[in-house]
Amino acid sequence: MMDKYTKLQMTGIYAAVTVFLIFILLPFFEMFMASLRPLEHLFRSPYQFWSDDFSFQAYRDMWDTVPLLGRYIINSVFIASAVTGLTMIFVVPAAYAYARLNFPFKNGSLAIFLGVNMFTGAVLLIPLYRVLRSMGLLNTYWAMIVPGVAFLIPQGIWLLRSYLEKIPRELEEAAFVDGASRLYTLRRVVLPLATPGLIVVGTAVFIGAYAQQFLFAITFNQQRELQPLPAGLFEFIGYQDVTWNQMMAAALTGILPVMVIFLFLQKYLVAGLTAGAVKE
Amino acid sequence: MTEISQALPSGSAMPRTKTLSEAVFAWLLIGPAMLFIAVIVAWPLAETIRLSFMDAGLGGEEYVGLANYQELVESRKFHQTIIRTFYWMFLSVALKLVLGLIGATLLNAAVPGRGLFRVLVMPPWIIPMAIGMFGWLWLYNGYFGILSGTLMTLGITDGPFEFLAYKQSAFYSAVVADVWVGTPMVTLFFLAAMQGVSRDLYEAAWVDGAGRWYRFRRITIPQIMPVIVSMSLLSAIFTFNSFEIIWILTEGGPRGATTTLIVDTYKTAISNFKFGEGSARAVIIVILLGIFALLYLNVLKFVNRKYGTK
Fold first, then answer.
1. Mean pLDDT for chain B?
2. Entry pTM
3. Is some CB atom of chain A closer than 8 A to the CB atom of B154?
4. What's the CA gap between A229 and B238, in Å, rounded?
5. DSSP reduced 3-state for A178
């Protein structure tokens, strides 16, 4: 009853939603349209919203113009996966400790982790460059993976902690009473129960890792074969004769992997990502 | 059983075990993450502070005391950059919050199709920022972009309008692109908070004859206030630090019109190899962000007390 809307109100809501979504989706629509335009179409005057010679040719040609395109996409997925795997290895034990255990300097150390959230790599690039150089990691995949992991650990701990707190303690206590060690309980009792949470946090970290590749890649890596997609494509934008339609086709193709992952997991992802914001 | 429960320290539900004390075990679990952060974040941070007192470049380092800072304090250009950064941050965050609130309210309305709307709102948040910016680069193009194209077709402008070529329009164009990136996250957090508000409150108000707007103002807003505060400060930090958006759209130009502190730092240190001067800028950013974090914690405390979260 309370939620009933009049016809007029319904129309208003849908109209407002449409305007909102146009703002959000306009760049994607524009990229898609651009990818369909033949190159000579671009300088046609007056401006044409649509013409008969739109085609999907750019989606074929882009593999020749950007010979490493496939490589870039694979690099992106590989770097994001490696970052996610490593981050979770650090995050899972730490998040468990913050969710369940009492220990000295608990709040202080958590504050330090969260403090890291305030920096972007941009502030620390100079010394980070030196650290990576002294480790011999420049111009390798590691140069993009290692800083990526560091800046995602705090977020991961924060998200997973709120997830673990929701798992009832009784099961762990039962295991303890039966004489199980702490590590055994963590591995055999807590982790299986936390699987949905691990998936959510893992996905969130993956998306973060996929999104943040640009800065570290353009700063710490000069090897073209190792570049992730955003950095690889950015290089082409500086060229004299940018084949824009192919660039846009390549960009859209490159974001397909995350979009697919996201579509499958979006329901859990939203719940997980916003879990920290909503107090139970 | 009774022995164990007697041995429990009061307040802790977890029994002590034979193997490891709780504190040692906890630090073993946290240690690796802490160590990693120390090497990749804390040590470089200390190094940044050290370098800020140096005249450092590709050649070598020389201690110069506060010279780098003094230069910044006296530089009018740097003052303008700070003012611009804050203007950029406040404008962008305000827009994100307003749009986020509107968006969340719309998505929270009980109309058919809202599940689909929620999915369609997310892409700017999900994809690499850089890729989204390629799209905006195109939108803002005077010859190719649909914005300029529409303006020309409607006869509002005579010829192509390059959004990123003029100081004013470039700045506001960058703000719009930044708002575009940040709005989905704000919207979804607000939405989650709104869905957490108890229905009883609304029903009680409704029974008393309260209208929608009244319920929004007197129930929704106070109930989600803690989330509004934490989101405003989180997005303030993100916006302050926002680098890729500006770098890809304008590289800080035209003539410095979109140069924020973070872009200025990158240009000084990485593009021009002035490590010392760049580090001094980075330290100023860290100090400003530190002040922000303190503000954040205090405001959050105040809000939690005032609106009493459960």
1. 83
2. 0.84
3. no
4. 23
5. coil
Distance CA B146, CA B163 (A): 12
Question: Could you report the per-residue pLDDT of B117-169, keeping only the tens digit for each?
Answer: 888 888 898 888 888 998 998 889 887 788 888 888 887 877 778 888 888 89
For chain A, percent of residues with pLDDT exceeding 90: 16
Does the structure show a pLDDT above 90 at B275? no
Of B19, B36, B196, the CB nearest to A149: B36
CATH topology of domain B73-307: MetI-like fold (1.10.3720)
Q: How confident is the model at residue B87 (pLDDT cuts 50, 70, 90)?
A: very high
Quick check: B243 and B177 in contact, CB under 8 A?
A: no
The pLDDT of residue A99 is: 87
- Sketch the domain layout of chain B as residue ranges: 73-307
At the fourth CATH level, the homologous superfamily of domain A66-277 is: MetI-like (1.10.3720.10)
| C-alpha dihedral sign at B120, B125, B131, B137 | positive
For chain A, the average pLDDT equals 83
Interface of B with A in 222-261 (CB under 8 A): 226-227, 230-231, 237, 241, 243-244, 248
Contacts of A96 in chain B (CB under 8 A): 29
Residue-level pLDDT at A2:
65
Q: Which residues contact A142 (CB under 8 A, 6 or more apart)?
A: A132, A135
B196 closest CA partner among A279, A164, A166: A279
Q: Between residues 181 and 220 of chain B, which touch chain A (CB distance below 8 Å)?
A: 183-184, 188-189, 191-193, 195-196, 202-203, 206
Residue A270 has its nearest CB partner, among B36, B137, B188, at B188
In terms of C-beta density within 10 A (0-12 exposed, 13-18 middle, 19 or more buried), how is residue B213 classed?
A: exposed
- Rounded Cα–Cα distance for residues A182 and B155 (Å): 73
- Among A27, A101, A207, the residue with its CB nearest the CB of B22 is A101
pLDDT at res. B17 = 46
Looking at CA atoms only, how far is residue B250 from chain A in angstroms?
12
Q: Assess A239–B contact: CB distance below 8 Å, yes or no.
A: no
Residue A277 reports pLDDT greater than 60 = no
How do the domains of chain A map onto residue ranges?
10-44, 66-277
Report ipTM (2 d.p.).
0.82
Whether B99 and chain A come into contact, CB under 8 Å, resolves to: yes
